[in-house]
Design a protein that fits this description.
Low-confidence stretches: 241-250
Strand order of the largest sheet: 2-1-3-4-5
CATH superfamily of the largest domain: Response regulator
Mean pLDDT: 84
Largest sheet: 5 strands, parallel
Number of strands: 10
Radius of gyration: 20 Å
Strand content: 15-25%
Order of helices and strands: EHEHEHEHEHEHEHEHEHHEH
Shape: elongated
Structural class: alpha/beta
Number of domains: 2
């Protein structure tokens, strides 16, 4: 798990950095909006953003808005910390999906609990369907680095067998496969498991964007060549859950 910590010169920021170090989290620090944005947009896989609301220029709030408005990072969990209940930005922060404000005295355990809540969907399972082993291996590595469980299928029929024997939360499938294509698999899956998000990957986006796939219920389309950030963004979006503010419960 990789954490991007947007720090300030406040005492709380120093405490957060100390607690992250004590907890042996993998984290990278940024001391400005620009630096944090460059890290986020560099292709580095970031699982969580933590920032300090108690800075003087609203950088934490502004950066959270930047994340929410970013096409690739809109579902990235953001944890904004404050020990001051009277900050006027608290109510604004809590209106945003995946944005959690911590209001109480920060301790090692309470920060750990807050991080666990923000990453609460990381025990979910993604089913990868592709007839090319190299593609599956690459995607499996990238998605597992996010903390998700990954199952693999070499064909549409194999995917249906895996689906019948396991609890799957999201399917990521190639479009062009022998025997059963991705859109054929999509149709079968949505007929029996309409609740499972289904994303198709294809180098033939002209076919992917037609109305027939939309009618079949495809949840997202990823064009080849894709970036790792696009894959992670799609998985996050598909598995998105709304986390309410932690508040006094943490």
């Amino acid at each position: 798990m990789n954490i991007l910590f947007l720090k300030s010169d406040s005492n709380l920021s120093a405490k957060i950095e100390s607690l992250l170090t004590i907890g042996k989290y993998d984290f990278v620090t940024a001391d400005s909006f620009e630096t944090a944005g460059n890290i986020l947009d560099s292709g580095t896989i970031i699982n969580l953003v933590i920032s300090d609301l108690e800075n003087s220029d609203n950088t934490a709030y502004d950066f959270a808005i930047y994340v929410r408005n970013s096409e690739l990072h809109t579902s990235l969990p953001v944890l904004i910390c404050t020990e001051v209940n009277s900050n006027p930005l608290i109510d604004k922060c809590q209106k945003f999906k995946f944005l959690t404000v911590f209001r109480n005295s920060l301790t090692e355990k309470s920060l750990q609990d807050a991080i666990s809540i923000m990453l609460g969907d990381r025990d979910k399972t993604v089913l990868l369907v592709d007839d090319e082993a190299m593609v599956r291996d690459v995607l499996k590595t990238v998605i597992e680095r996010e903390g998700y469980n990954v199952l693999e299928a070499v064909s549409g029929n194999n995917a249906l067998s895996v689906l019948n024997e396991n609890h799957v939360h999201l399917i990521l499938s190639d479009l062009k496969m022998p025997s059963m294509s991705g859109d054929e698999l999509l149709k079968i899956v949505k007929a029996s498991h309409p609740e499972i998000p289904f994303y198709l990957i294809s180098g033939f986006m002209g076919e992917c964007t037609n109305d027939s796939l939309a009618k079949l219920g495809v949840d997202g389309l990823i064009a080849k060549p894709f970036s790792f950030a696009e894959i992670i963004s799609s998985v996050r979006q598909g598995l998105a859950e709304t986390y309410t503010a932690v508040g006094a419960q943490v």
